[in-house]
Amino acid sequence: MFILPDCPYCHEAKRLIGQLYRENPEYSKVPLRVIDERAQKELADRYDYYYVPTFYVGGQKLHEGVPDMEKVRQVFEAACRPVP
To answer: How many CB atoms lie within 10 A of CB 56?
Structure first.
């Protein structure tokens, strides 16, 4: 998940993730890498996105911008699916 520390939507995404972890402990097993795009600019520049937070799973962008519970849940559901 690409973020900016002062982004209110990123804080909301983190809050929603915490709520998902409480609702379904299986989600807490999903590896989540939080990348501050300012601190890791070189890495962030390799990805195609404009807004934060942005979620990638397996190199595929699944959500970009203002999060809601359903979108964040979809990201975690995709991350839980077995890779073919």
So the answer is: 19
Q: Report the alpha-carbon distance of residue 72 to residue 57 in Å, rounded.
A: 12
> Token pair for residue 81?
């699916």
**Average pLDDT, stretch 51-76?**
97
List Cα–Cα distances, 75 to 5, 6, 58, 59, 63, in angstroms. Answer: 21, 22, 11, 12, 7
Alpha helices in 1-84 (DSSP H): 8-23, 41-44, 69-80
8-state DSSP, 3: E
Q: Beta strand 60-64 with 35-36: parallel, antiparallel or unpaired?
A: unpaired
Cα gap 14→52, rounded to integer Å: 12
Name the pLDDT band for 82 (thresholds 50, 70, 90).
Answer: confident
- Partners of residue 57 on adjacent β-strands: 60
